[in-house]
Design a protein that fits this description.
Layout: H1 2-22, H2 25-38, H3 42-61, H4 73-92, H5 98-115, H6 131-164, H7 177-209, H8 218-239, H9 245-269
Length: 279
């Protein structure tokens, strides 16, 4: 039943994409007019319905099993997916941000799909310690912000390429490069601050548990590398004034580093930091 809920959420998220691919142009225009008039078209209904099913899955798979986001890789990735989708829906309500919304929803669907392949773990000992939920909350905010930065970076590079190649049809429906660049920088700043304090609180939690690892924790090392990468990106933006395309490249490569972090946690540990026993 739990996997059925996750699969249903994925299917509902994908319905608007299928509609855009196969619906007739006149029906698409009618749906766009409805969304413009009332601020809520068929696309939004599908996405909101999918988000509710997604949230139900999180509650069933997490809270009812005594787990919190992050103590299990499956619940952690599912929570990241939900945060990314909700962020996309909120930002997508802004003028000319429809494409950004669709990119973030797709990223959320991929994360939710990958989460179904990840193992479920028992929570670590004393996981209700105050430092852990604070650590996890800030880490999720950081990752969600970096994911938004990735989507903005991809959109920036796509718009920039269209402008350089003089493919201007429909360009007025897309945000300007200046707005995309500024939003990208803001997302990176929020993510960097959240990752910094989330990492510090994680270290405090680890010290309070007197944790010892038999082997080096690669997820910590990769997280530190990500922190340095975004620190360099923000530093060069402020000091050297490297903006625009360079900032977008930092956003794309940083998200690739996040993917490496998830892959290493999965392949080497089967869980975040190797805590928890697969069920």
């Amino acid at each position: 039943m739990i996997r059925f809920l996750a699969g249903s959420a994925i299917a509902l998220y994908l319905v608007p994409f299928a509609r855009n691919l196969f619906a007739r142009p006149k029906r698409l225009e009618a749906g766009d007019a409805l969304e413009e008039k009332w601020g809520l078209g068929n696309e939004w209904r599908w996405f909101l319905g999918a988000a509710l099913v997604h949230l139900t899955w999180l509650g069933w798979a997490g809270w009812l099993q005594g787990l919190m986001p992050g103590t299990s890789m499956r619940i952690g990735l599912g929570t990241m997916a939900f945060v990314v989708v909700v962020t996309g829906l909120v930002l997508g309500s802004k003028p000319k941000m429809h494409v950004l919304k669709m990119i973030l929803v797709i990223v959320g669907v991929v994360l939710l799909g990958v989460s179904q392949l990840a193992p479920m773990q028992q929570p670590p000992a004393d996981y209700k310690n105050l430092w852990l939920p604070l650590h996890l909350g800030l880490i999720f905010i950081g990752i969600a912000s970096f994911t938004v930065a990735f989507a903005l970076s991809v959109l920036y590079l796509a718009v920039r390429r269209r402008l350089k190649s003089q493919r201007l049809q429909g360009i007025v429906k897309l945000p300007s490069l200046a707005i995309l660049d500024q939003w990208n920088a803001n997302s990176m700043v929020v993510g960097f601050v959240a990752l910094t304090f989330g990492g510090l609180l994680g270290a405090l939690w680890g010290e309070s548990q007197a944790m010892e690892h038999e082997s080096p924790d690669l997820t910590i090392y990769i997280t530190v590398c990500l922190w340095i990468w975004y620190a360099v990106g923000l530093h060069t933006r402020v000091v050297v004034d490297w903006r625009g395309r360079v900032g977008a490249i930092f956003g794309v490569v940083g998200f690739a580093g996040f993917a490496l972090l998830v892959a290493s946690a999965w392949l080497f540990f089967g869980a975040w930091h190797g805590f928890g026993v697969s069920q």
